[in-house]
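Suppose a colleague, Dr. K., hands you the sequence of a protein chain of 301 amino acids and asks what its three-dimensional shape might be. Before reaching for any lab equipment, you can write down a predicted structure in token form. Begin with the sequence itself:
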Amino acid sequence: MKIFGLAAIICAILSGCSTPSGGVDWFDWTKMLLAQGHMRTDRGVTEAMPTAEELAVNFRRTAFAIEADPWSGPNRQSTTAPRILRRWRSPISYQVIPLGPDPEGFQRRVDTFMKRIGDLTGHPINSLPAIYEVPKDPKASVFVLYATDEALDRLTADGGPLTQNPNSELLELQQRIRARIADWRIRKSPCAFLFWSANEAAEEREPGEMLFGVALIRAEIPEPLLEACIEEELAQGMGLTADHQDLRPSIFNDDQEFALLTRQDALLLRVLYDPRLRPGMPVDDAMPIVRQIAQELLAES
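The predicted structure, expressed as tokens, is then:
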């Protein structure tokens, strides 16, 4: 069911007004989306299920496409330049850095959704205790950073926690994260997922194996947008890294029609972690297998 509502109803849903950050008043922005019938929370259950071929095409759009410019706004386009499949091989350990309001509540939301992701994919995922600063010797493979503008200032400042690691390899990675956070925080983006895979990190791993990720979520955003950010960024952090304007019903589409992981998105995640696929597979090798998996999944539905 689409979400429509009058201004008074929307204001109640949004739990008050949010503080602007990244040059955006996130309360007004979310109110506008809701008034336009976007940010649907029905998970696409009223939409027709895709055919096997449509599911395979949509998998290619999000798993094998490259976003031309991740900061160019809601109308950014993806390219279909050939690339390899990216996904995690090792178990994921994630750690929340909650530097915003209601940190315990935020942790619960992340835990609930990560359990859902683990159930869908069959990939082992475990939670580490929340921390309140960037660790000097990180043990997690994914960090979920929930922070205000003021906290982001501290994290990216000269002499801050991302500039003082005695381990040169970790320091280099942290400095790259620092630069990406500093770039993201001035953009009109409520959330993002940064990831590093084996070919980018120049490690002796299988190409395409995802090694490390950081989910960035602004603490100033209001309630419906916060839930949407948790679901989209953590789902994309599994390896479905591109959005596409023709992919629906889906959260992997920057039109913001859907706020929560849809039925089709859940199928895309199941395709990605099918054992017949592997990190580093070229698109031409993977797609015949993807089509077979899509047929099998839809036959189960």
